Amino acid sequence: MGPVIKVCELVTRRPDLDVEAFQRYWRDVHGPIVAAIPGLVRYVQSHPRLGGYRNGPLVYDGVAEIWVQDKAALATMATTAQFASAKADEPNFIDTTTLVELAGLSWLWRVGCCWCWSVGVFGWWGCST
């Protein structure tokens, strides 16, 4: 597999939402909206464990990742009604004034018995069999 484009969003919850309500909405409501966007290769939500909040708020409440095959797929995806619906839903749970978006190329290769991803901006992403 050649490189794919990966867009990461560093997400902060709206101040009026507690962590559990935020995570539930993001996972159960927003997740399926994003997953319906045509052209996605992969969609990942990373939610901090609740215990991570015991000493106070975190800088970010999560990371969202969308993967697309190439720039053309990203441009096409951004014109769809499903993409517009996902962006319109963000203010329902995200503090959009603090939203950070990062884009980069990711390469996939086989190492030993598993597939591993290298992410241009963040170092190692992970492995799976």
Commentary on this structure:
The protein is α+β, with helices and mostly antiparallel strands. 26% of the residues lie in helices and 36% in strands. It contains three helices and six strands. A six-stranded antiparallel β-sheet has the order 2-3-1-4-5-6. Strand 4 and strand 5 form a beta hairpin. It is globular, with a radius of gyration of 15 Å.
Rg is 15 Å
Detail the poorly predicted runs. Answer: 117-129
> Structural class, from helix and strand content?
alpha+beta
Sheet with the most strands: spatial strand order:
2-3-1-4-5-6
| Multimer state | single chain
Q: Give the overall shape.
A: globular
Distance between the termini: 16 Å
Percent in strands: 35-45%
**How many helices in DSSP terms?**
3
Order of SSEs = EHEEHHEEE
Extended strand count? 6
**Proportion of helical residues:** 25-40%
The major sheet is characterized as: 6 strands, antiparallel
Overall mean pLDDT score?
86
